[in-house]
Protein backbone atom coordinates (compact mmCIF):
# COMPACT_ATOMS: atom_id res chain seq x y z
CA UNK A 1 0.00 0.00 0.00
CA UNK A 2 2.84 2.34 0.88
CA UNK A 3 4.53 1.69 -2.45
CA UNK A 4 1.28 2.41 -4.30
CA UNK A 5 0.86 5.67 -2.40
CA UNK A 6 4.40 6.69 -3.35
CA UNK A 7 3.64 6.04 -7.01
CA UNK A 8 0.51 8.17 -6.70
CA UNK A 9 2.66 10.97 -5.28
CA UNK A 10 5.08 10.55 -8.19
CA UNK A 11 2.11 10.73 -10.57
CA UNK A 12 0.96 13.95 -8.93
CA UNK A 13 4.46 15.39 -9.34
CA UNK A 14 4.36 14.70 -13.07
CA UNK A 15 0.74 15.79 -13.37
CA UNK A 16 1.39 19.14 -11.68
CA UNK A 17 4.09 19.97 -14.23
CA UNK A 18 1.80 18.94 -17.09
CA UNK A 19 -0.95 21.08 -15.58
CA UNK A 20 1.03 24.32 -15.85
CA UNK A 21 1.75 23.58 -19.51
CA UNK A 22 -1.75 22.33 -20.36
CA UNK A 23 -3.33 25.50 -18.97
CA UNK A 24 -1.37 27.55 -21.52
CA UNK A 25 -2.59 25.38 -24.37
CA UNK A 26 -6.19 25.50 -23.23
CA UNK A 27 -6.25 29.26 -22.55
CA UNK A 28 -4.97 30.14 -26.02
CA UNK A 29 -7.36 27.66 -27.62
CA UNK A 30 -10.24 28.96 -25.53
CA UNK A 31 -9.59 32.53 -26.68
CA UNK A 32 -8.68 32.23 -30.38
CA UNK A 33 -9.16 28.51 -31.18
CA UNK A 34 -5.45 28.07 -31.97
CA UNK A 35 -3.31 25.04 -31.07
CA UNK A 36 -0.08 26.84 -30.24
CA UNK A 37 2.49 24.14 -30.94
CA UNK A 38 5.28 26.58 -30.09
CA UNK A 39 4.10 26.42 -26.48
CA UNK A 40 6.26 23.34 -25.81
CA UNK A 41 9.39 25.22 -26.80
CA UNK A 42 8.57 28.09 -24.47
CA UNK A 43 9.07 25.48 -21.73
CA UNK A 44 12.63 25.03 -22.94
CA UNK A 45 13.32 28.78 -23.00
CA UNK A 46 11.98 29.11 -19.47
CA UNK A 47 14.18 26.28 -18.25
CA UNK A 48 17.29 27.81 -19.83
CA UNK A 49 16.63 31.31 -18.48
CA UNK A 50 16.09 29.84 -15.01
CA UNK A 51 19.28 27.80 -15.45
CA UNK A 52 21.37 30.90 -16.26
CA UNK A 53 19.91 32.67 -13.25
CA UNK A 54 20.74 29.79 -10.91
CA UNK A 55 24.33 29.38 -12.12
CA UNK A 56 24.86 33.09 -11.47
CA UNK A 57 23.78 32.67 -7.88
CA UNK A 58 20.27 34.13 -8.13
CA UNK A 59 17.88 32.58 -5.56
CA UNK A 60 15.54 30.06 -7.18
CA UNK A 61 12.31 32.09 -6.71
CA UNK A 62 13.89 35.06 -8.48
CA UNK A 63 15.36 32.78 -11.17
CA UNK A 64 11.94 31.26 -11.89
CA UNK A 65 10.29 34.69 -11.94
CA UNK A 66 12.95 35.90 -14.37
CA UNK A 67 12.22 32.92 -16.62
CA UNK A 68 8.48 33.59 -16.37
CA UNK A 69 8.90 37.28 -17.23
CA UNK A 70 11.16 36.46 -20.17
CA UNK A 71 8.75 33.88 -21.55
CA UNK A 72 5.76 36.16 -21.00
CA UNK A 73 7.51 38.69 -23.24
CA UNK A 74 8.41 35.93 -25.70
CA UNK A 75 4.77 34.81 -25.83
CA UNK A 76 3.62 38.36 -26.61
CA UNK A 77 6.27 38.70 -29.35
CA UNK A 78 5.25 35.38 -30.91
CA UNK A 79 1.59 36.38 -30.88
CA UNK A 80 2.33 39.84 -32.28
CA UNK A 81 4.67 38.75 -35.09
CA UNK A 82 3.41 35.29 -36.05
CA UNK A 83 -0.28 34.96 -35.22
CA UNK A 84 -1.85 38.43 -35.15
CA UNK A 85 -1.10 39.24 -38.82
CA UNK A 86 -2.88 36.03 -39.85
CA UNK A 87 -5.82 36.80 -37.59
CA UNK A 88 -6.15 40.34 -38.90
CA UNK A 89 -6.16 39.08 -42.49
CA UNK A 90 -8.72 36.41 -41.66
CA UNK A 91 -6.40 33.60 -42.76
CA UNK A 92 -7.69 30.01 -42.58
CA UNK A 93 -7.12 28.26 -39.26
CA UNK A 94 -4.81 25.76 -40.92
CA UNK A 95 -2.45 28.65 -41.79
CA UNK A 96 -2.16 29.59 -38.13
CA UNK A 97 -1.58 25.94 -37.23
CA UNK A 98 1.24 25.60 -39.76
CA UNK A 99 2.70 28.89 -38.55
CA UNK A 100 2.69 27.52 -34.99
CA UNK A 101 4.67 24.48 -36.15
CA UNK A 102 7.08 26.81 -37.96
CA UNK A 103 7.58 28.93 -34.84
CA UNK A 104 8.22 25.75 -32.84
CA UNK A 105 10.90 24.55 -35.27
CA UNK A 106 12.47 28.02 -35.37
CA UNK A 107 12.76 28.18 -31.58
CA UNK A 108 14.27 24.69 -31.37
CA UNK A 109 16.83 25.25 -34.09
CA UNK A 110 17.72 28.79 -33.02
CA UNK A 111 18.22 27.60 -29.44
CA UNK A 112 20.61 24.91 -30.75
CA UNK A 113 22.95 27.53 -32.22
CA UNK A 114 26.17 28.33 -30.38
CA UNK A 115 25.17 32.00 -30.25
CA UNK A 116 22.07 30.98 -28.29
CA UNK A 117 21.90 28.05 -25.84
CA UNK A 118 23.96 25.56 -27.87
CA UNK A 119 23.13 21.95 -28.79
CA UNK A 120 24.62 20.26 -25.71
CA UNK A 121 22.80 18.83 -22.72
CA UNK A 122 23.41 20.80 -19.52
CA UNK A 123 23.14 19.71 -15.94
CA UNK A 124 20.43 21.72 -14.20
CA UNK A 125 21.52 22.84 -10.71
CA UNK A 126 19.45 21.83 -7.71
CA UNK A 127 17.02 24.57 -6.70
CA UNK A 128 16.48 23.16 -3.21
CA UNK A 129 18.48 20.82 -1.01
CA UNK A 130 17.44 17.28 -1.87
CA UNK A 131 15.75 15.88 1.23
CA UNK A 132 13.26 13.10 1.86
CA UNK A 133 10.61 12.73 4.54
CA UNK A 134 8.54 9.75 5.59
CA UNK A 135 4.90 10.80 5.99
CA UNK A 136 2.66 7.96 7.18
CA UNK A 137 4.89 5.44 5.41
CA UNK A 138 5.08 7.44 2.17
CA UNK A 139 8.41 8.93 1.09
CA UNK A 140 8.08 12.52 -0.13
CA UNK A 141 11.04 14.48 -1.50
CA UNK A 142 11.79 18.18 -1.25
CA UNK A 143 11.59 18.45 -5.06
CA UNK A 144 8.04 17.07 -4.98
CA UNK A 145 7.09 19.59 -2.30
CA UNK A 146 8.66 22.35 -4.41
CA UNK A 147 6.72 21.29 -7.53
CA UNK A 148 3.43 20.95 -5.67
CA UNK A 149 3.87 24.26 -3.84
CA UNK A 150 4.80 26.32 -6.89
CA UNK A 151 2.04 24.75 -8.99
CA UNK A 152 -0.69 25.29 -6.41
CA UNK A 153 0.35 28.92 -5.84
CA UNK A 154 0.43 29.67 -9.57
CA UNK A 155 -2.93 27.99 -10.23
CA UNK A 156 -4.52 29.97 -7.37
CA UNK A 157 -3.07 33.21 -8.77
CA UNK A 158 -4.41 32.27 -12.20
CA UNK A 159 -7.86 31.66 -10.74
CA UNK A 160 -7.77 35.08 -9.07
CA UNK A 161 -6.72 36.74 -12.32
CA UNK A 162 -9.35 34.98 -14.43
CA UNK A 163 -12.30 35.30 -12.01
CA UNK A 164 -11.50 38.36 -9.87
CA UNK A 165 -9.93 40.95 -12.20
CA UNK A 166 -11.14 43.18 -15.02
CA UNK A 167 -8.73 41.64 -17.53
CA UNK A 168 -9.90 38.17 -16.48
CA UNK A 169 -13.50 39.22 -17.09
CA UNK A 170 -12.46 40.47 -20.53
CA UNK A 171 -10.72 37.15 -21.22
CA UNK A 172 -13.88 35.23 -20.40
CA UNK A 173 -15.92 37.56 -22.60
CA UNK A 174 -13.54 37.13 -25.55
CA UNK A 175 -13.54 33.35 -25.09
CA UNK A 176 -17.35 33.37 -25.12
CA UNK A 177 -17.73 35.51 -28.25
CA UNK A 178 -14.80 37.42 -29.71
CA UNK A 179 -16.82 39.61 -32.07
CA UNK A 180 -19.41 40.52 -29.45
CA UNK A 181 -16.61 41.36 -27.01
CA UNK A 182 -15.09 43.72 -29.58
CA UNK A 183 -18.45 45.40 -30.13
CA UNK A 184 -18.73 45.89 -26.37
CA UNK A 185 -15.52 47.95 -26.46
CA UNK A 186 -13.08 45.31 -25.22
CA UNK A 187 -9.58 45.63 -26.67
CA UNK A 188 -9.46 42.08 -28.05
CA UNK A 189 -5.85 42.30 -29.24
CA UNK A 190 -4.70 43.33 -25.77
CA UNK A 191 -6.65 40.48 -24.17
CA UNK A 192 -5.17 37.93 -26.58
CA UNK A 193 -1.64 39.24 -25.95
CA UNK A 194 -2.24 39.03 -22.20
CA UNK A 195 -3.45 35.46 -22.58
CA UNK A 196 -0.27 34.50 -24.43
CA UNK A 197 1.79 36.22 -21.72
CA UNK A 198 0.12 34.30 -18.90
CA UNK A 199 0.26 30.96 -20.71
CA UNK A 200 3.93 31.42 -21.59
CA UNK A 201 4.82 32.47 -18.04
CA UNK A 202 3.20 29.30 -16.68
CA UNK A 203 5.07 27.24 -19.29
CA UNK A 204 8.35 28.80 -18.13
CA UNK A 205 7.60 27.81 -14.54
CA UNK A 206 6.77 24.31 -15.75
CA UNK A 207 10.10 24.16 -17.60
CA UNK A 208 11.99 25.07 -14.43
CA UNK A 209 10.07 22.51 -12.36
CA UNK A 210 10.55 19.82 -15.02
CA UNK A 211 14.29 20.52 -14.95
CA UNK A 212 14.26 20.38 -11.15
CA UNK A 213 12.77 16.88 -11.29
CA UNK A 214 14.76 15.63 -14.31
CA UNK A 215 17.91 17.78 -14.08
CA UNK A 216 19.07 17.99 -17.67
CA UNK A 217 18.12 20.65 -20.21
CA UNK A 218 18.68 20.86 -23.96
CA UNK A 219 17.04 22.71 -26.89
CA UNK A 220 14.57 19.92 -27.69
CA UNK A 221 13.58 19.20 -24.09
CA UNK A 222 10.17 20.86 -24.51
CA UNK A 223 8.84 18.37 -27.06
CA UNK A 224 7.91 15.41 -24.76
CA UNK A 225 6.24 17.39 -21.94
CA UNK A 226 4.66 19.76 -24.44
CA UNK A 227 3.08 16.88 -26.36
CA UNK A 228 1.92 15.16 -23.18
CA UNK A 229 0.46 18.37 -21.78
CA UNK A 230 -1.37 19.04 -25.04
CA UNK A 231 -2.80 15.54 -24.84
CA UNK A 232 -3.80 16.19 -21.24
CA UNK A 233 -5.58 19.40 -22.29
CA UNK A 234 -7.54 17.48 -24.94
CA UNK A 235 -8.27 14.70 -22.45
CA UNK A 236 -9.72 17.14 -19.94
CA UNK A 237 -11.52 19.19 -22.59
CA UNK A 238 -9.41 21.77 -24.39
CA UNK A 239 -10.68 25.26 -23.70
CA UNK A 240 -11.49 24.40 -20.08
CA UNK A 241 -8.97 25.33 -17.37
CA UNK A 242 -10.39 22.83 -14.81
CA UNK A 243 -10.39 20.26 -17.59
CA UNK A 244 -6.72 20.90 -18.32
CA UNK A 245 -5.84 20.46 -14.65
CA UNK A 246 -7.84 17.23 -14.39
CA UNK A 247 -6.43 15.86 -17.64
CA UNK A 248 -2.89 16.64 -16.53
CA UNK A 249 -3.27 14.83 -13.23
CA UNK A 250 -4.82 11.79 -14.94
CA UNK A 251 -2.06 11.75 -17.55
CA UNK A 252 0.61 11.87 -14.86
CA UNK A 253 -1.01 9.05 -12.92
CA UNK A 254 -1.44 6.90 -16.04
CA UNK A 255 2.21 7.27 -16.97
CA UNK A 256 3.67 6.64 -13.53
CA UNK A 257 1.40 3.73 -12.58
CA UNK A 258 1.99 2.05 -15.93
CA UNK A 259 5.74 2.39 -15.53
CA UNK A 260 5.59 1.09 -11.96
CA UNK A 261 3.22 -1.87 -12.37
CA UNK A 262 3.41 -2.86 -16.06
CA UNK A 263 6.50 -1.62 -17.88
CA UNK A 264 8.11 1.70 -18.77
CA UNK A 265 7.91 0.72 -22.45
CA UNK A 266 4.11 1.05 -22.32
CA UNK A 267 3.83 4.26 -20.30
CA UNK A 268 3.29 6.49 -23.34
CA UNK A 269 1.05 3.94 -25.08
CA UNK A 270 -1.24 3.63 -22.06
CA UNK A 271 -1.41 7.40 -21.59
CA UNK A 272 -2.48 7.95 -25.20
CA UNK A 273 -4.80 4.94 -25.11
CA UNK A 274 -6.52 6.61 -22.15
CA UNK A 275 -7.01 9.70 -24.30
CA UNK A 276 -8.54 7.65 -27.12
CA UNK A 277 -10.88 5.80 -24.78
CA UNK A 278 -12.11 9.01 -23.16
CA UNK A 279 -12.65 10.73 -26.51
CA UNK A 280 -14.63 7.75 -27.79
CA UNK A 281 -17.07 8.29 -24.93
CA UNK A 282 -16.80 12.07 -24.59
CA UNK A 283 -15.46 13.61 -27.83
CA UNK A 284 -15.15 17.05 -26.18
CA UNK A 285 -13.05 15.67 -23.33
CA UNK A 286 -13.95 15.05 -19.69
CA UNK A 287 -14.98 18.62 -18.84
CA UNK A 288 -15.19 20.09 -22.34
CA UNK A 289 -18.35 21.38 -23.97
CA UNK A 290 -19.52 19.73 -27.16
CA UNK A 291 -19.18 21.96 -30.20
CA UNK A 292 -19.01 21.77 -33.97
CA UNK A 293 -15.20 21.87 -34.03
CA UNK A 294 -12.50 21.20 -31.41
CA UNK A 295 -9.14 20.60 -33.09
From TrEMBL:
Gene3D superfamilies to which the protein is assigned, alphabetical: ABC transporter involved in vitamin B12 uptake, BtuC
Keyword vocabulary terms for this entry: Amino-acid transport, Cell inner membrane, Cell membrane, Membrane, Transmembrane, Transmembrane helix, Transport
GO cellular component, one term: plasma membrane
Subcellular location: Cell membrane
Bilayer-spanning residue ranges: 12-32, 39-58, 64-82, 94-115, 135-162, 191-213, 233-257, 269-288
A molecular-function term among this protein's GO annotations: L-leucine transmembrane transporter activity
UniProt cross-references to CDD domains, sorted A to Z: TM_PBP1_LivH_like (cd06582)
GO biological process, one term: D-alanine transmembrane transport
Main location: membrane
Mode of membrane association: Multi-pass membrane protein
PANTHER family named among the record's database cross-references: BRANCHED-CHAIN AMINO ACID TRANSPORT SYSTEM PERMEASE PROTEIN LIVH, HIGH-AFFINITY BRANCHED-CHAIN AMINO ACID TRANSPORT SYSTEM PERMEASE PROTEIN LIVH
Stated family: Belongs to the binding-protein-dependent transport system permease family. LivHM subfamily.
Name used for this protein in its record: Branched-chain amino acid ABC transporter permease protein
Organism annotation: Symbiobacterium thermophilum (strain DSM 24528 / JCM 14929 / IAM 14863 / T)
Amino acid sequence: MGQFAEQVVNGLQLGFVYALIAVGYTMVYGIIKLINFAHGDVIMVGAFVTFFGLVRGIPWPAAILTGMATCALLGVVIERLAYRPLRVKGAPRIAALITAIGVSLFLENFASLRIAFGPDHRQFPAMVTRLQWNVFGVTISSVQVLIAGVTIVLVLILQLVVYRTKIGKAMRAVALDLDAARLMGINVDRVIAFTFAIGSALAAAAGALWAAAYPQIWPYMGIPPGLKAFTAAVLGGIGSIPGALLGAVLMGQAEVLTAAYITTDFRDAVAFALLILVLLVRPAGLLGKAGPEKV
